[in-house]
Amino acid sequence: MGGFLRVRERRKKGENMERSRTTMDPWTYGDVDTIGVDMTRGLDLTGFGVEATDGGIGKVDEATYDTSSSYIVVDTGPWIFGKKVLLPAGVVERIDLDTETVYVGRTKDEIKESPEFDESNYRDEEYRRRVGAYYSTGSPQI
Q1: What is the pTM of this model?
Q2: Nearest 5 degrees, angle CA 112-CA 114-CA 120?
Q3: Is 121 or 140 the better-scoring residue by pLDDT?
């Protein structure tokens, strides 16, 4: 299932309640069945619009396709006063080639609250660790 790993666990022996948690590798695009395109072919997403679950957030400024370290940088334009945000590839839910739109599985507020983008260090391991930790937390599904 792309960048996601499903985990099932039982709390105590004899309990009937089963809990399912979804965790993800935030730096891996989903597979073609999940997002609609084969990202291993190096599709250029530069200039594509980006839609959060609750509306548009900007356009793709940069996209990478490295195994387990892929991301998109989004120029938010006037939405966050011309700032950029780094989104790990794992938050990409779908890509529509006809409308040149990337759909991400986060709200505008979640994206706005992410670690601040810094042009000088966004490729550094420490920054990527913080961003990955921020985006890889998912709520348990019971």
Answers
A1: 0.79
A2: 105
A3: 121
